[in-house]
Amino acid sequence: MKNAVGSKTLIIAEKPSVAQDIVRALTPQVGKFEKHDEYFESDSYVVSSAVGHLVEIQAPEEFDVKRGKWSFANLPVIPPHFDLKPVDKTKTRLNAVVKLAKRKDVGQLINACDAGREGELIFRLIEQYAGGSKPLGKPVSRLWLQSMTPQAIRDGFEHLRTDAQMQPLADAARCRSEADWLVGINGTRAMTAFNSRDGGFFLTTVGRVQTPTLSVVVEREEQIRAFVSRDYWEVHASFHAQAGEYPGKWFNPAWKKDAEDAEKKADRVWSLREAQQIADAVRGQPATVTEESKPTTQASPLLFDLTSLQREANGKFGFSAKTTLSIAQSLYERHKALTYPRTDSRNLPEDYVPVVKQTLEMLADSGMKHLAPFAAQAVKGNYVKPSKRVFDNAKVSDHFAIIPTLQAPHGLSEAEQKVYDLVVRRFMAVFFPSAEYQVTTRITSAAGHSFKTEGKVLVKPGWLAIYGKEAADEVADAKDGDKGQNLVAVQPGEKVKGDPVDPKGLKTKPPARYSEATLLGAMENAGKTVDDDELREAMGEKGLGTPATRSSIIEGLIAEKYMLREGRELIPTAKAFQLMTLLRGLGVEELSKAELTGEWEYKLAQMEHGKLKRDAFMAEIAAMTERMVKKAKEYDRDTIPGDYATLHAPCPNCGGVVKENYRRYACTGKSGTEEGCGFSFTKIPAGRTFELAEVEQFLTNKHIGPLDGFRSKAGWPFVAEMVLKFDEEAKNYKLEFDFGDDKAGEDSGEIIDFSGQESLGTCPKCGGHVFEHGKNYVCDRSVPTHAHPTPSCDFKSGQIILQQPIERAQMQKLLATGKTDMLEKFVSMRTRRAFKAMLAWDAEAGKVNFEFAPSKFPPRKTAAAKTATATKSGAGRATSTRASATKTPAKKAAAKKAAAPKAPRKTTAASGKLPSAALAAVIGTEPVSRTEVMKKLWDYIKANNLQNPQDKRTIVADAKLRAVFGKDQAGMFELAGIVGQHLADQ
Q1: What whole-number distance in Å separates Cα of residue 904 and Cα of residue 899?
Q2: Are 657 and 673 in contact (CB under 8 A)?
Q3: What string of DSSP letters covers 30-49?
Q4: In 227-320, where does DSSP find H-type helix?
Q5: Torsion sign over Cα 601, 603, 607, 613
Q6: Distance CA 572, CA 563 (A)
């Protein structure tokens, strides 16, 4: 019997796990749900879910500007409305949810996505997409959940919110999304257009969260570079009492903080003479002792949200934020061992006390011997109490804190176990008693000078026991005698003597560079640095980005070459400094300040409370976008004001001083203030910004590379070397890319001398020695040498293969072991996608080939493979059934044929493609594969010397190639596309 039209309600959750929780909570009330691939269904409900964002906004086709046309003429892009497009990775899920929403028996929808702005947006975009050109037209209610216990879910269904109640939140969600798009797209295109005005393509990305985050890192680096270290001294003494020795450090009791100089501190002396005078005055003199001792307690840190978990894992294990998120996501999705990790809350709902007790019982009974006893102690001691420090609905946002689930995990990787342990220890620690210390402050006075000694003794470890701390253990941060140690007793009225007493020379240190842990903290607390009180309050605990996006923001800055990750430090590149100089120079600093986020949050909060209209906010964003583009478009000065470098290396043409400006490095004459000899070169050749150290090396050696990160005019990345060549016509040096023309050098017949080089290893082909030569690694018998004037070997392997530089150490490893390590920066010529592979010696083919890691997923068994397996397993049986014994010969033959493994596919002329008449005139008429075509085409180009001498990426067509190209010249990146038009199936 068919269901009546509109009789069912579709519930859309944000995640599959929430959909399952809803089904479990509703089953006792509405009856059993049938499980299907993408949804659950009962007589009255259909429950499905997204997997985060399934739909994203885009400009309508007529407003979209493709990257090749990123110029000021097409800016700003402010579409009157936004179209929607599916997120590629989740199209299947989107189609399934849309199909359910359109079902005739589904009469209404319930938005059960996460309780917050993003959850509202996820649902609204799915609903809009499902409706297509007109609204879906089905009533919508809102399920608002901040706790996922069955009772909380059932209570939520009793108090569904109306669509009208949620409209202000929906407006704020859409405004945030569209405003981010407008600022990011227009800002990126405007800055890229500005930086590409002198030719080339210099991608310069900006964004509301990305750019202020980068600004934080750049400002810290500027502080480090501007820092001037100063000498100072501390005076340290060892005091002798009847019970033994104790250390002390001089300090000035009358010292007050200096607002102008943060380096001035109570225990610092700024001249050696003064420090020596203090030491000499105190040494050997009787000293009086006063001390104060008092108990203190230390509570455990709060539960983890994602950012604090990422910071902890980075500090303890060196995991990147992206890695920690990936591990936490695996523990949540695959192992079901942690709650949802993408949260910014460090509290639990108030109704979660029973769940916490059950979780501790599970941990107490688990096989984790290092943690189970503490869980058992918490259960036995009834440690779990409904404290506001842990259980507070007001501090639970879209999600609650990360805690272990009721499911004990098995088969965790080492990294997963580390992160799981972090969460479990923190989870147990918040319920344990505070740690108790006895803190003693001892002041030792002699000859008018005071020395401080602090003792801190752990009396009761409390929660610290979970981390291996025991009572009376020395505190981990004890140092220099001024804190942390267990002090020897001093009797009342006892006189002590200091010896030795010595000055200790030290230097002030610049602030530390950001690590991912400290940058995540800076992003999280960015709102606290905002001056405006209202904006600071609006940002609240939000900071820059969300816990779910912060790791991707950091990874994006690294991918765009704005930052480098060296060990645990994040270091801004020259490209980052150039962007900040540009934004300051153009007067669009708001893009680099957290205040922009604060202003948006303030206005979006007003919108959520019905005090600001969506249209008014978007009009302000459009005006800001137009102003930003206008400033970049109308800037007419030659350079951008900034703090520019003077280079140490002299001008190669006249020996003058080379200075930096916004766009170029240029000669400024012998004095550094003249017009100079005219020598200059761009700071951003082919979209890659020179680092200062690279420029110094380049000017000194007139050669550098191979370097990666270059982009062609079409935006494709490539690797190249660069040289400074003397131009006879201009009578000056100029920068050129050196793509190499190895054949010209190798086929010249000149004797090559390898005597000054160290061999990389033995040639796998003939047993000779392999050396670096030109852009290749070659066998010494493959080129003319004094020992072998006539080449007898052809071993050669490039130093750059598909944009992947092959380091000397990797070639040595290949020659010694047969293969390199896994290399990760190869880029396919066909798809332009990066891939990773090892290089390995292929003895059968007689050349170096790719070797790929085995797939994690075994190939699916085909019918033929299953038959083969069955045949193999039955081969040893003594008897067989009558059915198998009486198989017809035809069936046996068919089975045999099915079981036979397929021969590997070979590329033959028959499987190739036919070249057109024009292409055949260059490479011949035989059918060929696309790879062979490219090889033959390049052989022809090299043989006829058709590369433009000034730009070897450009091919100058002769009569034959003109018929293929349809024009007088073509770029090397165009060849594959042109060739495709001249190949046809046989």
Answers
A1: 15
A2: no
A3: H---EE-SSEEE-SSEEEEE
A4: 272-282, 306-317
A5: negative
A6: 4
- Provide the token pair at 239: 């005091």
Cα 32-33-34 angle, rounded to 5 deg: 120
872-900 CB burial, b ≥16 within 10 A, e <16: eeeeeeeeeeeeeeeeeeeeeeebeeebe
Q: Calculate the alpha carbon distances from 186 to 113, 193, 557 in Å.
A: 31, 10, 18
**Paired tokens of 455:** 């003792």
Q: Is 514 a catalytic residue?
A: no
Q: SS3 of 970, please? A: strand
Give all strands (DSSP E) within 491-532, no chain letters.
496-507
Measured CA to CA in angstroms, residue 631 lies from 583, 636, 901 at distances of: 10, 10, 67
Q: Annotated catalytic residue: which of 39, 45, 332, 340?
A: 340
Question: Which of 851, 746, 741 lies closest to 793, judged by CA?
Answer: 746
Residue 619 Cα to chain centre, angstroms = 33
Task: Name 450's bridge partners.
Answer: 251, 445
Residues 26-51 have a mean pLDDT of 94
Three-class secondary structure of residue 1 per DSSP: coil
Distance CA 409, CA 327 (A): 13
Cis peptide before 572 (omega within 30 of 0): no
Tell me the average pLDDT across 903-915: 54
Q: Are 986 and 908 in contact (CB under 8 A)?
A: no
* 8 A C-beta contact, residue 378 and residue 356: no
pLDDT at residue 877 in the model: 38
Calpha distance 917→909 (Å, rounded)? 17
State whether residue 369 is helix, strand or coil. Answer: coil
Question: Token match 């990773």: residue?
Answer: 836
How far is the C-alpha of 155 from the C-alpha of 89, rounded, in Å?
34
Identity of the amino acid at 623? A
Is there a contact between 939 and 955 (Cβ–Cβ < 8 Å)?
A: no
Location of structure tokens 């918040």: 430
| Higher pLDDT among residues 871 and 499, named by residue | 499
Give the pLDDT confidence of 170-220 residue by residue, as tens digits.
999 999 999 999 999 999 999 999 988 877 778 899 999 999 999 999 999
The residues with which 161 forms a beta bridge, in sequence order, are 142
Tokens for 966, please give them. 């349809």
- Per-residue pLDDT tens over the stretch 576-585: 999 999 999 9
- What is the C-alpha separation between 250 and 253, in angstroms, rounded? 10
Start-to-end C-alpha separation, the chain: 55
Closest C-alpha among 572, 560, 578, 564 to residue 665: 578
| Half-sphere exposure (Cβ direction) of 572: Cα atoms closer than 13 Å | 25
Report the DSSP pairing between strands 8-13 and 106-112: parallel
Polymer length in residues for the chain: 986
Q: Answer for the pair 547, 309: CB distance below 8 angstroms, yes or no.
A: no
Cα–Cα dist 881/870, whole Å? 14
* Residue closest to 342 by CA, chosen among 114, 558, 559: 114
Ramachandran assignment for 320, one of left (phi > 0), alpha (psi -120 to 50 degrees), beta (any other):
beta
| Cα 128 from chain centroid (whole Å) | 32
CB neighbours (10 Å) of residue 797?
A: 18
Take residue 669 and report the two structure tokens written for it. Answer: 């004459």
What distance in Å separates the CA atoms of residue 11 and residue 19, rounded to the nearest whole number? 8
Q: Is the pTM for the entire model greater than 0.85?
A: no
What 8-state DSSP symbol labels residue 260?
Answer: T
Percentage helix, strand, coil for the chain under 3-state DSSP, each rounded to 5: 40, 20, 40
